[in-house]
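Page 42, continued from yesterday. The earlier attempt failed because a stray header line got pasted into the input along with the sequence. Redoing it now with the clean sequence only.
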Amino acid sequence: MEKELKLRIVLEKPPPGVDFGLQKGHGSRYETVQTQRSGRKDLQFAFAVRVKNDRSDGTPNFLGPFVQGPPGERFVYLDIGTYAGQTDSCWSRRIKVPLRGITWEMIEHVAANAAAILEARVPGTGRDGGPACATVKIFAGWSVRNS
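This time it went through. Structure tokens are written below.
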């Protein structure tokens, strides 16, 4: 049985003047949605995924157009600069936000509470001062919040 799960990624303090967007689709057949130009505030991306309990190890199997990667290592991409459609950008990057750490307890809580959402807060600026990129390694993971 599938459940729908509401997620939100908060991109904290991205460098100004850069477009960021949520990747929908896979490989070369994707579109960037919810594109936002960074300024002085955090950016937020809200979306839904489906989740099934069909894995032999009992971990959640995330599905849907925003989900990337093999089972057990699923993630979501945030496109940056030219990947987000900003043709005049010097940045061509992606941030890979892992879905690991989302437990069945969290899923059941969000599914049962219409006001609940799972949120991940990730850094928007990398060590080089440009937009963060690659797999997010330093973040607190996913937590249940009120939408």
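Notes: The radius of gyration is 15 Å.
Reminder to self: strip header lines before submitting.
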